[in-house]
Amino acid sequence: MTTFSPLDPRGTVLGDEVYLALGEAIIDGTLPPGERLRDQDLAQRLGVSRTPVREALQRLERAGLVEVAPNRYTRVSASTEKVQRDTLEFVVHFLGAAVKIAVEHADDAGLADLVAAADDVVEASRADDVPAIFIASERLFDLSVIATENVAFLKILREGELAFRHYLSRWQPAIQCPASRTVEYERFREAVADRDGATAERLFRTINGFS
């Protein structure tokens, strides 16, 4: 039986806490693909009522992590190569646009944070440490979306973050050669530092195989 630590709702928005708890359980495999999700069972395991669980399952369905067949089942969605590819394509174009806006609009302190984050990506690439590249890239683009100060970008990131992480968990660099890849990341970093948003966006898409 899948187990969870009961939630402590004090000082939190309970619906968000349930959503995050179930989403993280899907991402880490505690709730594997195909597992049936029954709101009463989940509510008991989390120590909450069924209402926030139902709300969380609805949000997870919209994010693509849960699939529902009315009067038949609610279960964890299975990942496919097409879903992974489609998610990557969306994220690359979405975050490329976010970088363009961010570097053009950020104040000096915000730009310095973006450059420092880009430096971390360069160093991870130079070390050919794929998990570190992914983590550093997540940090860079969280900062980028925040720096846009665009409510639409922020909402998409907030609602889609769990799905992005889940379906990109097997991400591999499009440029396999560490030296060649690092050169492109260095060019990307320079474009960010120069506030050249158009070039930064183009390079980001190219680095990730969507030129």
From TrEMBL:
Domain of life, source organism: Bacteria
Matches recorded under InterPro entries: AsnC-type_HTH_dom, GntR_C, TF_FadR/GntR_C, Tscrpt_reg_HTH_GntR, WH-like_DNA-bd_sf, WH_DNA-bd_sf
UniProt entry keywords in alphabetical sequence: DNA-binding, Transcription, Transcription regulation
Domain HTH gntR-type: start-end pairs: 12-79
PROSITE patterns linked to this entry: HTH_GNTR
PANTHER family: TRANSCRIPTIONAL REGULATOR, GNTR FAMILY, TRANSCRIPTIONAL REGULATORY PROTEIN
Protein name: HTH gntR-type domain-containing protein
Annotated source species: Microbacterium awajiense
